[in-house]
Amino acid sequence: MTAASTPSTGVRLPEGARFLAQGLGFTEGPAALDDHAVLVASINRGHVYRVDLDGSGAELAVETGGGPNGIAVGSAGEVLIAQNGATVMPSRSTLTAAPSIQRWAAGTLTTVVPDGVDAPSDCVVGPDGRFWFTDPPDHSLDGTPAPGRLLSWDATTGDLHVERDGLLFPNGLAFDATGERIYVAETAPGRITRFRLTAHGCQPDGWSVELPHGKPDGIAVDVRGWLWVAGSVGGNVMAFDARGDIQQEIRFGTGSLVTSVCFAGPGLDTLVVTAAKGGSVIALPAPHPGLALPGLALSARTARESSS
C-alpha cells in the first residue's frame, strides 16, 4: 500500500486510512461501543475515551486510574476493563487502582474482580456470557518471561477460573465464529495459538502462526475467518486466513507501536487500529466485516426483544 507521512505523530497512514483521534497517550484496547463510536484505553493516563467514528474527536468517558488495558462491552451495555494497575508503565492519573477487573455502568465505576490476578491485559465477553481475559505477570519481550494465564470470570457466580496457564506474555484474544475455539496471542515468542474449549479446559487444536514481523498484541476475527493481528513493535497489522497463511499486511511506520485492532461501525466494516505513537486512533475500510462480538450480539438481541 502507498502511504503518506504524518509529521504530527510519525505514524504513516496507509491509503484510505484516516485519524479518528490523536494525542490520547499510550492507546490500547479499542472496543466497539455502538454503531457510532469506539472506546479506547489510555494506559499511561488512566483514562478510557469515547472516540467517534465520524472523526469528530474524542472525549473522556471515565477515569479508571492505574493502567486500563483491554476493554469489552457486555450484553447490557456495561463496560468491563482489564486493569493492569500501572504495572506496565507509570500512570499520570492521581487515582490509584490495583491490578483487577473493573466495571463501568450507568456512570459508576466499580471493581468486580479485586483479587487473584497479576496484570490483566486484553479481554472479551465470551459466547457463554463469561468475561475472558489474559493475565501476564511479566511483559518482557526478550528471553523467557514468567508464565501467565488465560482466565474467565462469571459475573453471576463470581467464579474466577484458570482456563490455561504457562502462556508466555499472553495478550490479545478472540473467539472464532463457532464460539468453541479461542485464539490467544503470546507476545514474547511472537505466536498466536488456537485452543478448543473442552470439558478438560482449553486444548490446542493444531492451528498456530508466528509473526514474521513484529510481536502480536491485540487481535480480532472477521466473517471470512481471517485473524487480524496488531504487530506492536513491528508497526504493522497482519491478516492470517483460516489456513494460517498471510493474506494482508498493513504498515504504519517504524516506531508507531501498533497495539490493537477492532471492527466497528453499523456493518462492522471499519477496522479501527490503535497506535501508541502520537496516541493515535486510526480507521480504515475493512476488506471483510468483522465477526460480531458476543457481547454486542447479545446487546443487539436484547434491544430488539425489548422493542417488539
Automatic annotation (TrEMBL):
Report whether Cell cycle shows up as a keyword of the record.
no
Please provide, alphabetically and separated by semicolons, the GO molecular function terms listed in this UniProt record. Answer: gluconolactonase activity; metal ion binding
Broad class of enzyme this protein falls into: hydrolase
**SUPFAM superfamilies, per the entry:** Calcium-dependent phosphotriesterase (SSF63829)
* PANTHER family noted in UniProt: BLR2277 PROTEIN (PTHR47572:SF5), LIPOPROTEIN-RELATED (PTHR47572)
Q: Which cofactor does it need?
A: Zn(2+)
Boundaries of each SMP-30/Gluconolactonase/LRE-like region domain copy? 26-276
UniProt-listed InterPro entries: 6-blade_b-propeller_TolB-like, SGL, SMP-30, SMP-30/CGR1_Lactonase
- Might you give the EC number(s) for this enzyme? 3.1.1.17
Where, by residue number, does a divalent metal cation bind? Answer: N171, D217
Which protein are we looking at?
Gluconolactonase
Q: Which keywords does this chain's UniProt record carry?
A: Hydrolase, Metal-binding, Zinc
Catalytic site: D217
The record's cofactor note says: Binds 1 divalent metal cation per subunit.
